[in-house]
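As noted in the main text, all predictions were made from sequence alone. Below is one such record, for Amino acid permease.
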Amino acid sequence: MITTLTRPESGTGRSERHRLSVVGGLAALSLDAMASVAYGPEAIVIVLAVAGGAGLGFTLPVTLAIAVLLGVLTLSYRQVIAAFPDGGGAYGVSRTYLGRRASLVAAASLIVDYVLNVAVSVAAGVAALTSAFPGLLPYTLWLCLGVLALVTGVNLRGIAESARVFVVPTVIYVGAILTVIVAGLFRSGPAAAVVAPDHARNLQTVGVLLLLKAFANGCAALTGVEAIANAVPSFRKPRVRRAQHAEIALGGLLGVMLLGIAVLIGKFAIHPVDGVTVLSQVTTAALGDGFGFYLVQFSTVVLLALAANTSFGGLPVLAQLLAKHNKLPHVFALRAERQVYRYGVGFLAITAAVLLVITDGDMNTLVPLFAIGVFVGFTLSQVGMVRHWRRTRPSGWRGKATLNGFGALLTGAAAIVVTTTKFGEGGWLIVVALPLLVAAMEWVERSYRRIGERLGLGLTPAPPRPHRSLVIVPVHTVSRLTRDALAAALSLGDQVEAVHVVHPDDEHAARDFVADWEKWHPEVTLIQLHDERRRLGEPLVEHLRTVGDRHVFVLIAEVEPEHWWQRILQNQRGGVLARALRRRSDAVVCRMRFRLTTR
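Prediction:
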């Protein structure tokens, strides 16, 4: 006989309310990509500036190439969302079409990128803050950890709640950047003075390698594009359609902002200046140095600090998918009441905090590590989608496969250039970390496989048969706690024994206890175990070896205090017994709580 119990619809409604709308998805999962407008164009300009004015003239063409790649990735991930509604992004595509090893490489690259995104975003936001207020510079690390704790706390309340918190700063930031672009396009000259470019130092000619390096540096602006595809289960129903709309909106907004800023860089002859960001110079030229300038700067600081939320929306969902596939411990698949994968959130926060502590919150130390992993994932995802089209062959599959193949070529080239140019700046750490993560996931998978073999998973076992059972109740006093424990034990098994461990200096108290037991006469056998070495759990373990071929239950009765701070006063004996029994016996350990209430 099979009985099925279904939760009421109200529970499902509450679950859906904790999921994302399209706007909420942009706020919760796209802050990383949105905030990259603050450092993506600057990364291009810094590389091209070594060739002086001739090099800076290629800012718009390089940005246009990145925008083309962004369009390819956006359309590709729109298809990934439809093909893999359970999330996973590059991991899901690679697992289905490229094989187990490639999927683990994709997963490892995504994990590394998510962790680095948190560390870099927090460090960049704090760096912008300390640039405006130099007096805070000595407290950089503490500010980083404080911002990280704030973002972590918000995400532990639920991804939809975090989306509501971040919608307002996201809208302000996007509105401010678009205002800068529109105002700058309509100006014939800068609204306020900008530092004049110095083209006297043309240290390098413009060559293919320089352009490739600028392209690779600027591609840092594309990190976060995959986050929506990784977190499709976090959206409200219909999940696929909402996630696709969010992906298209992200690609469109990011492309417009990147190209707009690149146009203004050329129009106002912006170039790198120590202590002044490229975005700050563009804002000054477009809006002047009044209220609008400070609004853009403040919204940029806030969004850079909060851009870490992209990882908090994406990595826990990816981790739960990996856990379901036995690549990570199954604890990562557990959801809390607010639909939060709190173990994934905790892992991400702790790992990012360690990175911040190691680097003392220095953004320049973290940035060389950034974006290497994500391009590996991009490339695997694109190649996997080519195989998807070749295998499924829907209408127009050749054009779609060509698009993904072109994307794979671009992202693969970017991955090679980024890795080679940043290898000596710390990129080698990522090259080492990726295979280590792959090896760790393979070890977890092998461990679960061995456990499954021992448990006979996938096989049909013989029907269960009843066995003679023995319930043992550790006791040391006669009380209501003892009474309730024995009553529960008599309901559980065929035979019940009360066991009392006696130490050398407890002989007198033990005799009194026996007298009280006989006076009480509970009709349960009392066994006293004398131990000269004053052990608590081991005598009971040794006694279990003498009970023969029976199913043994050990029922440990414990006091549940009224207040959490009273726990240190209670339950110490029960914990010691439970640990000893679980380590050294096959008994089923049951811990029964006696709740203390104020009368």
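The chain has two domains: 11-86+116-360, 469-595. Residues 319 and 332 are 6 Å apart (CA to CA). These features were considered when defining construct boundaries for the mutagenesis experiments described in Section 2.9.
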